[in-house]
Amino acid sequence: MDDSIPSGLLKEWKIGDNKLKKFTSVEDVNDIDALVKKALAYKVNPLKDATLGINKRIGLLFLNPSLRTRLSTQIAARNLGMEAIVFNVDKEGWQLEFEDGVVMSGNTSEHIKDAGPVLGSYFDILCIRTFPQLVNREDDYSELFINAFVRYCGRPVISLESATLHPLQSLTDVTTITEILQAKPLGRKPKIVLTWAPHIKPLPQCVANSFSQWMNAWKGTGEFVIAHPENYQLAEQFTKGATITTNQDEALKDADFVYVKNWSTYEDYGKIYENDPAWMLSLDKLKTTNDARVMHCLPVRRNVELSDDVLDSSHSIVTQEAANRVWAAQAVISELLK
Ligand code: CP
User: Fold this and answer.
1) If one looks up domain 168-323 in CATH, what number appears?
2) Is 68 close to ligand 1, i.e. is its CB under 6 Å away?
3) What are the pLDDT digits (tens) for 258-296?
4) Ligand 1 pocket, residue 67 CB under 6 Å
5) pTM value?
6) Residues 5 and 37: beta-carbon distance below 8 Å
7) 66 annotated ligand binder
8) Under a CB-based contact definition with an 8 Å cutoff, are residues 181 and 225 in contact?
9) Which fold has domain 8-165+325-337?
10) Nearest alpha carbon, ligand 1 atom 7
């Protein structure tokens, strides 16, 4: 272990009868910068803790599709010596019920109250991806699924993206910004802009919520601006502290980092009100920025959210960002193994 990085970077919570650590939100993190430092140390030396997870198993449960999250988390676990098992619950498992006290006469076959402890008996760490339904805002924003999972499995849980947040992505994003600034210091804290972009489908607010939550919590943030069309405001619980504008051009001025993401409406929940291509980030729009680096969590719809001329330019750091998913996941898993 690297003695220069303190341990205990994740909080311990009382969950049911257990005291457990989890990684479902920035609120589970004691020290963002130390966790980032740990992720970057794994990038330099991926196998430095190759025996930490020996004889331990991590379960990755997917109720929704994934490329980066499923592969990077498996690689991270294996770098720590763990056995990683992926279970596509949506396609291969019984349909799970998460609500307490329901009469299970519908489509769900197994309650998380029963499945959770079974999964907990098979694995040392459990991870789950469970997207929002985008039908009922109260249901999604109560985080019913992941909270029930945490409560009933009795093991440390990592969110692989829940109904409202994507913390592994956000830790990666802070890690990537830190890495860029370490290579080329600005001499000041960066101006970071999150801008809405068009999309053909109504998407969750998770990535935007989570990025906002982490930017507002991170000491490295200078100015944090969110730009979106009218009626696309995100939940205040995540954005409080940010400057919010409906003027994208104004927001982009002097930006050092531009994070591009679509999300569906929050107030009139889960709708597409706006698909104006003028909101797509193009090379021309970056002229007023401070030679901004452009980020996106991927997958990205080319020439809908982001133009080819941005994605194929030196502004884009989306591949570096996606590659860093491994090191962020490795930092989190190693904390949970302790
Ligand atoms: N960014 C991200 O979470 O990618 P995947 O959906 O492919 O896992």
Assistant:
1) 3.40.50.1370
2) yes
3) 999 999 999 999 999 988 999 999 999 999 999 999 999
4) yes
5) 0.97
6) yes
7) yes
8) no
9) Rossmann fold (3.40.50)
10) 67
Distance of CA 145 to the CA centre of its chain: 16
- What is the pLDDT, as a whole number, of residue 71? 98
CA nearest ligand 1 atom 4, residue: 68
Mutation pick for ligand 1 pocket among 61, 63, 67 (CB with most ligand atoms within 8 Å): 67
Q: Write out pLDDT tens, residues 31-82.
A: 999 999 999 999 999 999 999 999 999 999 999 999 999 999 999 999 999 9
Tokens at 240, concatenated:
């409080």
State both tokens at 88: 């596509």
pLDDT of residue 88: 96
Task: Write down the domain spans for the chain.
Answer: 8-165+325-337, 168-323
Residue 298 CA: nearest ligand 1 atom is 1
- Same fold for the pair 8-165+325-337 and 168-323: yes
Rg, C-alpha atoms of the chain: 20
With a 6 Å cutoff on the Cβ, whether 64 touches ligand 1 is no
Render 274-315 in DSSP notation, one character per residue: ---GGGSB-GGGGGGSSS-EEE--S---BTTTB-HHHHTSTT
Find all residues with CB under 8 Å of 141, minimum gap 6, and list them. 163, 164, 235
* Residue 8, phi then psi, degrees to nearest 5: 70, 40
Which ligand 1 atom lies nearest to the CA of residue 297?
Answer: 1
Do 146 and 163 contact (CB within 8 A), yes or no?
yes
CA 163 – CA 245 distance, rounded (Å): 25
Ligand 1 in reach of 69 Cβ (< 6 A):
yes
